[in-house]
């Protein structure tokens, strides 16, 4: 199932004003070169309040489509990018952001994250 409005996949800088935040990782794992295909569906096991605009808020029990998995680096935790799927939180649907891998359980794997590609500055852009 392709995800066509991927904020973090653009090859050129976004046209809107915003801020390029620090990179959380230099590499990510995806199912394809552009990270547009959902890898899996995960369920949040706890609430998570986003510390900044690179991240998404998640609530315990929510389903999240996972699009990429950042490669863990020395001092950083392991983060995945995804989009909340929930009829209760329609305002967040379609918003792609990062969340800690430790707070979710993968429920269904659609595709394997078999490509490791470098992250780009746009992967950590905040509007």
From TrEMBL:
Q: Which PROSITE patterns match?
A: SH3
- Stretches assigned to the SH3 domain: 37-109
Where do transmembrane segments lie in this chain? Answer: none
Keyword Transport appears in the UniProt entry? no
- State the InterPro entries in the record: OTOR, Otoraplin_SH3, SH3-like_dom_sf, SH3_domain
Keyword Phosphoprotein among UniProt keywords: no
Q: Which UniProt keywords apply?
A: SH3 domain
Give the top-rank taxon of the lineage listed in the UniProt record for this protein. Answer: Eukaryota
Which PANTHER family does the UniProt entry name for this protein? OTORAPLIN (PTHR47146)
Q: What is this protein called?
A: Otoraplin-like
Can you name the source organism?
Gekko japonicus
- Per the record, the gene is LOC107109896
């Amino acid at each position: 199932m392709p995800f066509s409005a991927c904020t973090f996949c653009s090859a050129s800088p976004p046209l809107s004003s915003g801020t390029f935040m620090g990179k959380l990782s230099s590499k990510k794992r995806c199912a394809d070169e552009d990270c547009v295909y959902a890898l899996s569906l995960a369920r949040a096991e706890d609430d998570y309040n986003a510390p900044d605009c690179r991240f998404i808020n998640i609530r315990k029990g929510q389903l999240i489509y996972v699009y990429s998995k950042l490669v863990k680096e020395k001092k950083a935790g392991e983060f995945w990018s995804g989009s909340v799927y929930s009829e209760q939180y329609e305002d967040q649907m379609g918003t792609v952001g990062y969340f800690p891998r430790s707070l979710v359980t993968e429920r269904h794997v659609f595709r394997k994250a078999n490509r490791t590609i470098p992250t780009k500055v746009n992967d950590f852009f905040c509007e």
